[in-house]
Predict the structure.
Amino acid sequence: MAVGTEVPQLVSSPPQWDDTADVLVVGFGIAGACAAIAAAEAGAAVLILERTGAAGGASALAAGHFYLGGGTPVQQATGHTDSVDAMRDYLTAVSPDPDPLEIDAYCAGSVAHFAWLEAQGLTFERSFYPGKAVVQPGTEGLMWTGNEKVSPYLELARPAPRGHKVNAPAERGGNEVMRVLTARVRELGIRVRYETKVEQLVGFGDRVVGVRWPGGAASGAVVLAAGGYVMNADMLAAYTSRLAPHFVPLGVPSDDGLGIRLGQSAGGATAHMDGAFLTASFYPPAVLLHGIIVNKVGRRFVAEDSYHGRTAGEVVAQPDSTAYLIVDSKHMAWPELPMVKFIDGWETIALMEAALNMPVGALQETLANYNVAAADEHDPELGKHPDWITPLTQGPWGAFDLTPGIATYVGFTLGGLSTTVDGAVRRADGSTIEGLYAAGACASNIAQDTGGYSSGTCLGEGSFFGRRAGTHAALRRQEGV
């Protein structure tokens, strides 16, 4: 999987152009598709350059969630009150280094963006799935997909479900998104060159004026939408060495970071390159959330009802990244996703404690304290929601191993090129590179780490900021800038 971290050479003088367009979009996933459509809607001539033989990229692997809020038609139809302020408060709270301009734009534009997505042909059921799951079991249009109801965020922002899923079964959600957007690209007459791997940007002065691929070149403003770097072992080692050993890469072969490195070749800065999402969800079934999660010394460290990405990040941060899910017989169930492994069952907590090599009495004390508080349906230690609080008193007790390497974690990268709210790529000094934009997984947007990620962030951010980048690139190009 090693690909390297080398930055391509910027071609400093224009070659003979083989093609020309107002806007060149590099990559045909969610961000590239939306950038191209928006640029075309703004009146630009658009050319998409896709290195593989088909549209989709990693976006086609997604379940089909878009993280949107502020009072969308689906939220309203299902009786869920939301506001721009509540959405802004939540995203600010879960972001380690929140960018207020990007968060404000995303939240204030969320309802209009939902309408734009539907105008492209995507459909969302006006229905709600109330359960705790990784993805809706059917075609329900809305569910909770983050930490909105989890302490401390429950106290920091008024919670609302924001995981909007397209009207398709989960295993086909991403494919449905890309099928519809690809059809829209064709309808608008946007040209696409497949099997075209852009390998260099072309600069003229301090501007980017085009791209080169083996045997050809095209002029135009450039929108990089070429994916993240989860399939590049060298970049993972360089940027996410703390997390990379703990997950199986989730992506497509073209997620090798080339888009990021192309941006760097023109002087583009990066942000949050150490950020990644990872998960080894033990739910569904939701009954397992009644259990407690402890580390190698038998102490709880995360509210068990957290979104699975937050839980995964907290597990990795524990000593030796070791953690266990403990349940009693009343709440015992087999995870529906084959990601965590059952260890064994024991008649007493003391026997479990010894078998797991924990300090004598540590797990017994943890469970005893938890059960006392759970009898009153509260969790003073970590703020677990009352919906999932029940004393664990009915033996025998079982343990699942959440330790990476034993449990199977999957993940992908979150860092990328630093951009403005309109997708313009920034230099390290904050200035922007004229003619160069980035969006999607090769740009750093709102989600910066696994604790702040919610299902639907990739498609939501990729489509929203891809659309803004395409529009801005088209307008700047038409202005002759």
About this structure: The chain has 13 helices and 21 strands.
